[in-house]
Amino acid sequence: MKTFITQITKFIIMGIFVYLFLALIIPPTMVSNFYGTEWREKLFVEDAKSLDSLDVLILGSSHAFKTFDPRIFKDKGYQMLSLATPSQTPQNSYFILKDFFDGVLSPKDRRPLPKVIVHELYCKTISDRSALESYMRSVEHHPATYNFFKLGALTKNVTSINMFFSSMLKRKFGLYEEKRTYSDAPVYVKYGYYKTTSTRGEAHRRYDLPIEQMVFENEQAKIQYKREKIRDSSICSGAPSEHQMSYLKKIIDLSNSYRVPVVLVVAPMPSDYTLNIKNYGKILDSLESFASENNISFIEDFSSIKINEKTDFADRDHLNVLGAAKVSKFFIQKLEEEGFLK
User: Fold this and answer.
1) Backbone dihedral region of 70: left (phi > 0), alpha (psi from -120 to 50 degrees) or beta?
2) Which member of 70, 126, 193, 252 lies 3.0 to 4.6 Å from 240 by CB, making a disulfide possible if both were Cys?
3) Which residues have C-beta within 8 Å of that of residue 166, sequence separation ≥ 6?
4) Are 90 and 248 in contact (CB under 8 A)?
């Protein structure tokens, strides 16, 4: 019996070494298609570790890192940092925030606490959506921590774990190759802002016309537009999922344990985009009720700053640098009025 147990133990140990060796040498493209695509996240991790003080910490999806411009905050005398990532769900945000509070995403000798944490909410990321996509896009550059390993395990996808160990080992042994794609990519601005200067005007598409009157470059463009309309109407058709809202509650509780208040925000989007989302008004009502129940602020009305839907947006639903400047100034004022910033 002892011999059998010894052989099994040796086999398991050998299996672990073989697995780690393969994770070290396997080409990144064999691990995931996302590998190497989100190089900007390496920069915001470096930015986070360089901070001496912090006023506003941003979490959320691409709507967050294309809405809040740290340069505008700096002009007003505040230090902002965004740890938002593409398609970041509250489940992703929770483990990223844990790493921040643990000193992994902040200077270990200082660990500056923000005056307020702002979590952006997008109907797509608060639906019953897996943390997998955002995890895949983040794991290459995120520090290899227990929190991030646990998040990968919770995705229940073996590729997540493979990417975790592959990225960790490649960084450890200096085999990591940074792959940057600059074509049509937004410019990274220090502290987590993705600057886009393009506009959504008529050159992009005639949004203000019925589809029968729209002008498309070719038939394929028209088909793609119809697909986008269908997708937009279905991604957020239901109420926010209990799963994601439970993680949002964990974020609030975790922040409260450090005596840091949380503010929820829905970034502005073009009216023709939100009109195609079923029950969008009910989703906002549900988020407002959640905020009220948890005694936190909820900001979603930006009508007073008169955002131009053709010149202030870069694409179908993200702000460009002009829109981000307007929203950032307005948002700073709101945070000041509510006493989060002084």
Assistant:
1) alpha
2) 126
3) 23, 24, 26, 28, 31
4) yes
Q: Which helix (DSSP H) or strand (DSSP E) does residue 262 occupy?
A: strand 262-265
Section 186-200 average pLDDT: 86
Q: Is 156 exposed, middle or buried (0-12, 13-18, 19+ CB in 10 A)?
A: exposed
The CA-CA-CA angle for residues 247, 251, 257, to 5°, reads 140
CA distances to 55, 198, 215, 218, 340 from 221, in Å: 44, 19, 10, 5, 46
- What are the residues facing 226 on neighbouring strands? none
Scan for tokens 């598409």, then name that residue.
Answer: 205
pTM of the model as a whole: 0.84
CA distances from 333 to 26, 116, 205, 235, 291 (A): 50, 14, 33, 32, 20
**What's the rounded Cα separation, in Å, for the pair 277 and 315?**
17
Q: Which residues contact 185 (CB under 8 A, 6 or more apart)?
A: none
Q: What is the pLDDT of residues 124-148, one digit of tens each?
A: 899 877 788 888 888 888 888 999 9
Residue with tokens 């593409």: 86
| Predicted confidence (pLDDT) per residue in 270-308, tens digit | 888 887 777 888 889 999 999 999 999 999 999 999 899
Residue 280's closest CA among 133, 127, 129, 134? 127
